[in-house]
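Q: Can I see a sequence and its folded structure?
A: Here is a first one.
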Amino acid sequence: MALFDLAQLEAAAELVHAVMPPTPQYAWPLLCARAGAEVWLKHENHTPAGAFKLRGGLVYLDDLGRRGGAPGIATATRGNHGQSIPFAARRHGIPVKVWVPHGNSVEKNAAMRAWGAEVIEHGEDFEAARIEAMRVAAAEDLHAIGPFHPLLVRGVATYALELMRAVPDLDTIYVPVGMGSGCCGLIEARDRLGLKTEIVGVVAETAPAYALSFEAGHAVSTQTAPTFADGVACRVPSPEALEILLRGAARVIAVSEDAVAEAMRALFADTHNVAESAGAVATAGLLSERERIAGRKVAAVLSGGNVDASQFQAVLGGRTPRV
């Protein structure tokens, strides 16, 4: 079943564009030469919060506000979702508590607090933080927002609408897969527009839950997800997201930690854009398939640019951060 129709997606885009302009998509010549293909980069690092998640929060909170709001919100994140929700919620006067794992990005935590969130550290990874957020939401009668919801997908799918209308003849789009909203949004938007573009999800080799699940045809969890690409550090996939990926993705591929770091360096060298680790995952996947895409018209989603300065300095210095 479709999560939304084209009219609903266009209405979501209108709502998002009242707050921010469409983000650009550019075909940078150095990146094209590196890939041996015509590569369009969708710059979701250019939103007011530096990542694509902002769109989902705006659409979700608009709906919640129309339904009377909430006394407070509880959610969990590695950083970008945790900026999206308070950014949107403060427009409706709703306080937000965000759970993050211990050792989360210092600069993402600071950004969440700057948007008005109360940030609480709990557990060793996203899944532990998510479980605690849902527990407290039930105990304190807060509105719980999980990592995957049709309204969040509808919101983030507005970048897919922008990209596919700007460049409608793309052969393939590469997108990072954290909990799946971005990839699912691309699949749903493509289908509403009646296009044939392949959607390829990209995960980290050390956080392979969605790749394993896609191959198996059912949800496969992992015990750990030790990747420095924190935005894709998923070990328990969403069944709802996986259902859409199984229906509409061409494949889900995995890239190494070194490949992610190299993609961050390539994006900076070729476009002078800062990509956070998860934001570079799609480009790493695209570059890993040079032979497959040779001479074709493809795109990668630069999903965010919120990287700690110390990590980016290490990456530009030729190192791959280890978790």
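Q: Show me another, different protein.
A: A second, unrelated one:
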Amino acid sequence: MALDPEIFETLIDTVRRFVHDRLRPLEADVEAADAIPAEVIGEMKALGLFGLSIAEDYGGLGLTMLEECKVAIELGRTTPAFRSSFGTNVGIGSQGLVMAGTPEQKAEWLPRIASGEIVTSFALTEPDVGSDSGAVKTRAVRDGEVYRLTGTKRFITNADKAELFTVMARTGDAPGGRGVSAFLVPRDLPGVSIGEPEKKMGQKGARVADVVFDDTPVPVANRLGAEGEGFRIAMQVLDRGRLHISAVCVGVAERLIADCVAYASERRQFGKPIAEHQLIQAMLADSKTEALAARALVLETAAAKDRGANTTMEAAAAKYFASEMVGRVADRAVQIFGGAGYIADYGIERLYRDVRLFRIYEGTSQIQQLIIARETLKRGG
């Protein structure tokens, strides 16, 4: 159920001010330290950001998809690492539990996820398994009242901090996704180990690492849904996550456009501000048009999802268009800033690197194209 409009506007205004006044001044520090200050994490918990998508019954804010996307747009106006620190709790790390968990599983975990007491991660990708997510090799073999879980997961966001993993593992001999099941795996179970965080191109402060399971005994009670339902659960989780990421892309694009306007209005060449040169105006016009189109697609799709519509195609289209769009906007921003855009002082080169990841996770652009084409053919146009 949607929040009261006045309460929601207060939330949006609070998040907007938090991003502008608190987070943006810290961007260079987070980049240099590759870490978000603990006190900022505490402030995010106090604002309820870890529980945006979790029902109020479990201590969350219980936002609709449309409301969540509007908040995500605001959060996109700063370095994506800040959002990533709680993004798995809001999205892929919690939504399998929200969608398929038993009442007992939800009662045990969701309140602590919503409060930020624990961080969650979604463990699907493997060293040999990325876009072909139905080909997971991690195995879960039933042994009485536990499953013995063995395998390696790769590029797992927030793995270094996570206390709970939603893990996709093969439980049967059925080929493809039909043999995949989902499990809630606490970090403190025997046989769970976390690799060193990877060195990345961008999004410093957001960590990814391997997660290794070595004969880990996972209680049968920790399985999400029935055996063989894991792939379906994962796809539903990713459908929702794609909309959230699309909204973040819109926010980053709008921030870059505002930065470009401010810079172009002051930077002078040939006796006048570069904003008065038509080729600069053309880049601003292209960026603004694409950002407006992405915003409209994201919000329309989010509203349709809230109405109960099947939005698999539309979510893929939003993720495809918005992630590609923000890459183009970031590239134009570097061009508008010129030499200043290539050095670190203005933060443009940092965002240029940060947004590149959006075209990869939650499904690459090429996977989105396949989904869009498949759903278009299925619907007859």
